[in-house]
Amino acid sequence: MPAYVSSTAEPPWFARPAARAWTCPPAPTEVRDFHASLAGYAPTPLTELPPLATELGIGRVFVKDESCRLGLPAFKALGASWAVHRALAARAARGDATVPVTLVSATDGNHGRAVARTARLLGHRARIFVPRGVHPEAVAAIAAEEAEVSQVPGAYDEAVRQAAEAAAAPGALLVQDTAWPGYERIPGWIVEGYSTLCAEIDEQLAAAGAGTPDLIAIPVGVGSLAHAVVTHYRGRPAGPPTALLSVEPTAAPCVIESLTRGEPVSVTTGETIMAGLNCGTPSSIAWPQLRDGLDAAIAIPDAASVRAAGDLARLGISSGPCGAASLAGLRAALTGDGADERRAALGLRPASTVVLLSTEGSAANPAATTADK
């Protein structure tokens, strides 16, 4: 089936319904057992919100609430903990017993804090590079994990470049959640770590009598979480396919631009309250999965995310601007001009079940709630 690109400026939209027929190998099963062994592990809530189902004309809407994951206000600890575990084991197997290690990373907020927390708990050091635009409270939270914070005047891609240079020092280990040619193994482990979130959703939907979701909406920065979700749902041996929708800021639409052009591209990013999604280049290992496995992509302005965060708060869900992007993106897809075409591309019916990934709580990346961008 062909791809569809919106012919109007709002909302930026790409769809390729043939994605539901694409398959890939599943994630390793031992990841969930590793997370279950960690102190403080518990599945995060999957909360049903009937008012949203009524508003959007679908059967059931659930929100996967990542506002408290392993003691942090975002899902990122899943990837950081598993990747550091695998990377340190690999170093030990090579006979590299340098202790302590300095874990180095660039971040828009949540990943860096997760790396810093992991380092502190394991008795290692951390150095985290933070680009412009990250809220000072988010920067302070990283420093509170006893990490050395290096603030970068440039955008996220520049922070990644500087982190990679710093990680060349003896005893340093780059733990980055985006990949590029020559640096792909650790980002791959981070993606594997996120598979626990998907396994929890399966169990929670089964307990709620909801079965397989018809659609999952995923906030996207470089695409690592979306990579994990694609792998999970396209790696199923049988069962009805799940449509997958990526959502990103109009100020940083690297995934939708790449899908539209048919190849990975870098974009110049602007300012957005969705700081954790303010990324200019898709991860190299995520790109093939996103290209082949995503049903659709949409980009949203800040105002839509602000509205969604406020609505989720009134329904009892703490969601930051990035987490609320999933609701904002679903609304943009299912309402307004062209909504019928977009709904059909996603395969949604009046009885469909949708899961929104709320990837961070309101404490993760504090931002003004009156933005209009």
Which helices and strands, and how do they pair?
Elements: E1 4-5, E2 13-15, H1 30-36, E3 46-48, H2 50-56, E4 60-65, H3 77-93, E5 102-106, H4 110-122, E6 125-130, H5 136-143, E7 148-151, H6 156-166, E8 172-174, H7 185-193, H8 195-207, E9 215-219, H9 224-234, E10 243-249, H10 254-261, H11 286-293, E11 296-300, H12 302-314, H13 321-334, H14 339-345, E12 353-358
Parallel strand pairs: 4-12, 5-6, 5-8, 6-7, 9-10, 9-12, 10-11
Antiparallel strand pairs: 1-2, 2-11, 3-4
Helix pairs in contact: 3-4, 3-7, 4-5, 7-9, 9-11, 12-13
Give a verbal description of the structure:
The protein has 14 helices and twelve strands. The chain is α/β, with parallel strands linked by helices. The protein has an eight-stranded mixed beta sheet with strand order 1-2-11-10-9-12-4-3, sandwiched between helices. It has a four-stranded parallel beta sheet with strand order 7-6-5-8, sandwiched between helices. Strand 6, helix 5 and strand 7 (148-151) form a beta-alpha-beta unit. Helix 3 (77-93) crosses helix 4 (110-122), helix 4 (110-122) runs parallel beside helix 5 (136-143) and helix 9 (224-234) packs across helix 11 (286-293). The longest helix is centred in the N-terminal third of the chain and has 17 residues, at 77-93. It starts with a strand and ends in a 15-residue tail after the last strand.
